[in-house]
Amino acid sequence: MISRLVDTSSLKIHPLAYIVPEMRADEWQQFLADVKQAGIRVPLEVIGDTVIDGRHRFKAAQLLDIKQVPVVDAPINGDTPETYMLKAAVLRRHLTDDQRACLAVRWKDEHKKEAGRPTEENRQNNPQQRIGGLNNSHPTQTESQTLFRVTQGKVDKATKVKNSRPDLFEKVGTGDIALSNAYRQVKGIEERLKISNTHPPDGKYQVIVIDPPWQYDNRQNDPSHQISSPYQTMTIDAIKQLPIPAADASILWLWVPNTFLPDAFQILTTWGFTYRTTLTWAKNFVGLGDWLGGQTEHCLLATKGNYKVSRYNESTLLTAPRTQHSEKPDSFYEMVVKLCPGTRIDMFARKDHDGFTGWGAEKHDR
Fold it and tell me: How far apart are alpha carbons 210 and 257 in whole angstroms?
């Protein structure tokens, strides 16, 4: 293709160019410095006076007051201008899977808007409408995945983030944060709403399992920590004030991470329970921790009144694989059922278990 020079002032950016994420600030400054030194070396691709590939080159030329830029006619080869523009962006730019998922979401949204735009016949008769709009057909799931080279699962997550937190969606699109992190933040918002609508447990129970959402105060300013928790955390004082629905004779199983062991004993006293022994869960995964990598979690056994277990031959060591975030092993609940007769409640339950009333808003989606 033979390039030609045209006046920068005679060109404009395609109205749907916003679908493709902008360069990050550091990338843009490096790019701008390169253009200032060497000029526009790669021609912009245009249809008429509309730039459909080379938006950043065009913006750099405007900022640097470059009067003329090289252009070539875009070889769209049967594609719509918009499809060609997106294909060029996906192939040429080093976009992550997360960024391509955001592209797919914006593309789908533009197709939804298309219902109220002029028909394809009108566009053929009006080139300006044809340049500015999409074709009449809606993209299928397969077409979107092929065009943007991204899985439907990522597109679904990006859609949820865009609908709930457009600000996070924009950060994913620019590559500032990972889609998985943004998605966890959105899920956290939903969990906090569910918690606010959760009423205290009804009745009294003889067997209580509780896994409070402990708050790691020393890492509250660490974004990677904040977004890793899919539910709202509680301070030690707030945990002490929880309404524990304990019968006069009852047994309590209090799950506690290593960091909070000293606090846990105080909490038991506040709730009116007497500490008896500790169950330790040995996991098959070394996670984060203070001083040492965390591979264990503890469950303090405590009683109130004259509660008796039905057997005494269980070990203080529970060996089981780690599952979803904060979810406890099924084998733990099976053991509690065998040991502890009476009515049972699982507070801050992550999922339902036979023989327990589940309470809380922290259940994982199944």
Answer: 13
Round the average pLDDT of the chain to a whole number and report it. 82
SS3 content of the chain, % helix, strand, coil (to 5): 45, 20, 35
Fold classification of 205-359 is Rossmann fold (3.40.50)
Give the residue among 362, 344, 361 at the shortest CA–CA distance from 353. Answer: 344
Are residues 328 and 277 in contact, defined by beta-carbon separation less than 8 angstroms?
Answer: no
CA distances from 296 to 33, 209, 277, 321 (A): 52, 18, 16, 11
Cα–Cα distance for residue pair 95/80, rounded to 1 Å? 22
* Residue 222 half-sphere exposure toward CB, CA atoms < 13 A: 9
Phi, psi of 269 (to 5 degrees): -65, -45
Residue-range domain boundaries for the chain: 4-187, 205-359
Closest CA to 162 of 98, 105, 114: 105
CA 109: distance to chain centroid?
Answer: 20
Phi, psi angles (nearest 5°) of residue 262: -60, -40
pLDDT in tens, 317-353: 999 887 766 689 999 999 999 999 999 999 988 888 9
